[in-house]
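Check this.
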Amino acid sequence: MELLQSAADRRQHDYTKSFLKAFGFQVLPLTENIGHRAAVYVEEYALSRGLRAGDALIAATAAENDITLCTSNVRHFKPIKDLKVHIFKP
């Protein structure tokens, strides 16, 4: 969802969808547990770290599915204790 919203035009939107499909990325459902955890993250980290709803949903999805989140966004994700984060520099 976050990748698609950043597309500047239809071509980039289609390219992003093709990329995700070609590399076998799985779209995970938004569950009640993910929504609840995201709300907790916003309450805990929005003021201190600037965590927004979209990033909270991404973090909650990774945590609830016990997967590592790969990101270059150190500021928002690193302080979340129950999240496995791999920081990379693009």
User: Anything to note?
Assistant: The chain has a mean pLDDT of 93. The CA atoms of residues 4 and 12 lie 8 Å apart. The chain has two domains: 1-27, 31-90.
